[in-house]
Amino acid sequence: MMIKYSPGPLRKRGQTHSDVQWATWHSNINSAFANLRKKACNDSKDLSMQSQDQKNSFMGSHVAVGFKLMYDQVPAQLMGKFLSYVAAQNISVVHLVREATVLRLASHQQTSVAHTSNATLAQQLHYELMKWTDGQAVAIAVKEIEEMHVKWQLRLQMYPLIRYHYVSYESLLGSLRSFYLAECVRSLGLHAVDEPYAQIAASLVQLHEPTCEQRVERYHALAPFLNGT
């Protein structure tokens, strides 16, 4: 939704974060939420193929809309206004963090397709193992990402009136994933159904193998460098 403010797309337009004005950024994020609300309203009207019980359940439920906002899509000079905006608009924040930080580096190196709901395409994609030569350099990069996670966590947790919920990426992959997903739903002020993961599993497509050993070349040799990160 706000990917145009990531450094890469900005560079393609000959801009940097310092060129981004609050009025423009603010207008764009408002438009993003407005479009999602409109889609949610349209979906609520398209109930012709549902059973009566499903219709009654949907019409009597509350709906939350939202999107993924990356750290690098909020220019540093806009941070104060961004936090004020989140609080003033009563926006709930679900902070999804990949705690196996080296896999984030692997994704940056490997991913030509970042997201897809096409299972056939996902099966056709082939990713090489993340290559590395300097273990200390990898450790420094991992530490920088972890410090960024903590910085954002403190900003959001400590700001008055922001509803904040932390969840790790890994917790949504394990055997207790339905429990953690339900906690995310409840953090939005909504009722969580039983086994929420089972209701969305069919729409999810796995792009990568889940472990460091499966994603990183010679991970056993890299692991000692990552101690303490």
Q: In a nutshell, what does this entry contain?
A:
It contains eleven helices and two strands. It has helices at 7-12, 22-45, 52-59, 79-88, 101-110, 119-124, 135-158, 177-187, 196-200, 212-215, 219-222; strands at residues 92-97, 163-168. Strands 1-2 form a two-stranded parallel ribbon.
Q: What brief labels describe this structure?
A:
49% helix, 11 helices, 229 residues, mainly alpha, two-stranded parallel ribbon
**Adjacency order of strands in the biggest sheet:** 1-2
Provide the helix percentage. 40-55%
Mean pLDDT: 84
Order of helices and strands: HHHHEHHHEHHHH
Our measurement of the CA-to-CA distance between the termini, rounded to an integer number of angstroms, reads 31 Å
**Radius of gyration of CA atoms, rounded to a whole number:** 20 Å
Low-confidence spans: pLDDT under 50, at least 5 residues? none
Biggest β-sheet description: 2 strands, parallel
Strand content: 5-15%
By DSSP (H or I, 4+ residues per run), the number of helices equals 11
Multimeric status of the protein? single chain
Describe this structure in words.
With 229 residues, the chain is mainly alpha-helical. It has helices spanning 7-12, 22-45, 52-59, 79-88, 101-110, 119-124, 135-158, 177-187, 196-200, 212-215, 219-222; strands at residues 92-97, 163-168. A two-stranded parallel ribbon has the order 1-2. The longest helix is centred in the first third of the chain and has 24 residues, at 22-45.
